[in-house]
Amino acid sequence: MTSKNISRIVELKTMVKEQMSVEMMHAKEKLAWETAKLDGLKLELAGNMEAMDQMQSLEAVDTDKLELLGNYMIYLDKRMKEQEKKIAGIQKEVDAKQSELRNAYREERVFEILRSKMSMEEQRERQALEQKEMDFNAIKTRKTQGR
Questions:
Q1: Cα–chain-centroid distance for residue 142?
Q2: Spans of the chain, pLDDT less than 50
Q3: Can you give the pLDDT at residue 55?
Q4: Which residue, of 67, 94, 97, 104, has the fewest CB within 10 Å?
């Protein structure tokens, strides 16, 4: 395997790493979006709880409205639990992508190091060959001058 082949592999690993980085960014954006939705549900539930407290403090309590509000709060609580499960799943996805990205960085780095070492070895071999040719030419020149 030559340093040229290794360079191609490094380019491929770099492209894979960049693609994974983009996927990671999208996953984090999705996580932020879903977390914001959950925060909105929490705020809505808190507002409804406050409204229920105010309604209960009144002397003339409309039980139908209280029941309706209570049912809506139960619905919001159910949606929040579903949203929390969804966020947990997305968080696992983000963690997996983060691990894949770390591995892609490592692989790219390993091949960069290998490319560098192979390039240095090829350079040493070229220099050794050039030195042999110069030595041969020097010996040849001396022999021809000596005659």
A1: 65
A2: none
A3: 82
A4: 67
Tell me the one-letter amino acid at 88.
A
- Contact of 48 with 76, CB cutoff 8 Å: yes
Please report, as a single letter, which amino acid is at residue 32.
A
Structure tokens at 143: 């022999």
Residue among 31, 32, 34, 33 nearest 96 (CA): 31
Torsion, CA 74, CA 38, CA 99, CA 29, rounded to 10: 150
pLDDT at 89 (0 to 100): 97
Tokens of 51: 């409204």
Q: Which two tokens stand for residue 86?
A: 């969804």
The answer to whether 12 and 72 are in contact (CB under 8 A) is: no
The pLDDT score that the predictor gives to residue 63 is 82
> Which residue, chain included where needed, has tokens 């705020």?
43
pLDDT at residue number 145: 77
- The residue extents of the domains of the chain are 3-116
> Which residues in the chain belong to E strands, given as ranges?
none
